[in-house]
Write a structure and sequence with these properties.
The protein is mainly α. Helices cover about 80% and strands about 0% of the residues. It has 3 domains: about 55 residues; about 190 residues, no CATH class; about 130 residues, no CATH class. It comes from Cellulosimicrobium protaetiae.
């Protein structure tokens, strides 16, 4: 039995948006508990949804059905009772009993699996760097590392054999296509394929993370949250590892031992990919820690990013002839817009959908509008350059990405504004974010697979 049986799973939240938001918050709370696996959370959600449906069939409205369902779940499950106890401002607390917090157990088996996959990822990259040239390794880096992360998540979710097959197909197909294409060495399509392939494969990682339930808005938002938290943990591991290696190299240098050859040939090829698997495990095991960091990070970086966008807009608006705008500047603008999109997504995922509207919600609308202004200028500059210099793989890929960003940001601004004015629930903004994400993966697949033959592999 799975959450896919839920009537609202993957469908528009529509008139039940508030109910979906409450279930999402309940699920978000439960999934942060270290002792509960994702499959257990799915099963608990199924029970909750079934109870809600049964209660709605008796004539209760969504709020009443959810409250009573949580109460009845609370009589069966300690976490539901704890959930209701912690959310003391909710009516749920008044309806459920308070029990003792269950103890936590550490899964040594999971740790062994994680370490084994981390070592395997490191060895795969090390072997590739030893037998392949640098550009071929760059082209295949996603294929060398992400299968191990996908395997960990698939093992963690206990997915079926059919889903395992579905996960393997994209890796095989992309691996064959990328390595049989007659790319021009250092050509644009080779570089684009190397950049787009990991984005495409990240969608496969997401499919493993959601246990194959890719139609569910809640699962896709869980994966978006996981991605943001993974970036935080990976950065922390990289910073800590850098400090440790720097101190070690300093001590070795005093003894006239040069650590640099070992660093380039062994330590980095083994540790950088392995750290990704370890970071994913930390996110899964320590979600409650990052949950406290996420809202802080979004509140710190949202105003800073807004200032950066305004500065970029002023620079572009005063640049004069848009056809003469430096290509590197346009690339940086795209990177900034993608960063803004990630920040927006992370902010939406970290927000309590039932919390009242606040100043920060208004600030996010301003941020999206500023990003739209920058994107409009960037699109104008790209179209001007294409009209003057013709189409190239880089220009076509950048133009497509900016058009996707434009659509995504415009509708995000509309929904966020409607939420601020009390005309749309926050769940609509959440659903839009998660439903548009596969479009980016599809575009990345087109860039990686279709662009090379279309542009003659140059």
């Amino acid at each position: 039995m799975g959450a896919a049986t839920a009537p609202t799973d993957g469908a528009s939240p529509g008139p039940h948006a508030a109910l979906e938001a409450q279930i999402d918050q309940w699920r978000g709370y439960v999934r942060r508990r270290e002792a509960i696996s994702a499959s257990d959370v799915d099963e608990m959600e199924d029970h909750l949804r079934e109870r809600v449906e049964d209660l709605r069939a008796t004539g209760l409205d969504d709020d009443e059905a959810f409250l009573v369902a949580v109460k009845r779940m609370g009589t069966l499950d300690d976490l539901s009772r704890e959930f209701a106890q912690e959310h003391s401002e909710r009516l749920w607390k008044q309806l459920v009993l308070v029990g003792e917090q269950p103890g936590r157990t550490r899964s040594w088996r999971e740790l062994a699996v994680v370490l084994g996959l981390a070592v395997a990822a490191g060895v795969a990259v090390k072997v590739a760097t030893a037998v392949l040239d640098e550009m071929t390794v760059a082209l295949n880096v996603g294929l060398l590392v992400l299968p191990f992360l996908t395997a960990y998540l698939a093992w963690k979710r206990q997915v079926t054999a059919r889903i395992v097959g579905a996960l393997a197909v994209p890796f095989v197909v992309l691996g064959v296509v990328l390595n049989v294409y007659p790319f021009e060495p250092t050509g644009s399509t080779l570089v684009l394929a190397a950049l787009a392939a990991p984005v495409t494969l990240w969608a496969v990682v997401g499919l493993a993370y959601v246990g194959g339930r890719w139609r569910s808005d809640a699962r896709r938002m869980d994966f978006a949250r996981f991605t943001g938290e993974l970036a935080v943990y990976y950065t922390l591991l990289a910073l800590g590892g850098g400090v440790l290696l720097g101190l070690t190299a300093g001590v070795f240098s005093l003894a006239d031992v040069d650590l640099e050859p070992y660093l380039e040939d062994w330590i980095l090829p083994l540790c950088v990919p392995a750290a990704l698997i370890v970071a994913a495990w930390l996110v899964e095991a320590k979600q409650n820690v990052v949950e406290n960091i996420a809202p802080v990070l979004t509140r710190v970086f949202t105003p800073l990013t807004l200032v950066m966008l305004l500065a970029v807009f002023v620079v572009l608006a005063t640049a004069g002839n848009l056809a003469a705008v430096d290509r590197e500047l346009l690339i940086l603008m795209d990177a900034i817009l993608v960063l803004v999109l990630c920040l927006l997504l992370y902010s939406v995922s970290a927000r309590d959908p039932l919390a009242p509207r606040s100043f920060f919600d208004g600030l996010q609308v301003v941020l999206v509008v500023a990003a739209l202004a920058v994107d409009a200028v960037a699109l104008t500059a790209m179209l001007t350059r294409i009209a003057e210099f013709g189409v190239s793989p880089n220009k076509a890929a950048a133009l497509g990405l900016n058009l996707l960003l434009l659509v995504h940001l415009v509708w995000s601004a509309v929904l966020a504004t409607a939420f601020l004015r009390g005309r749309r629930p926050f769940a609509d903004l959440v659903a839009w974010q998660t439903r548009f994400l596969p479009v980016y993966a599809a575009w990345a697949a087109i860039v990686a697979v279709v662009f090379p033959p279309v542009f003659g592999f140059v």
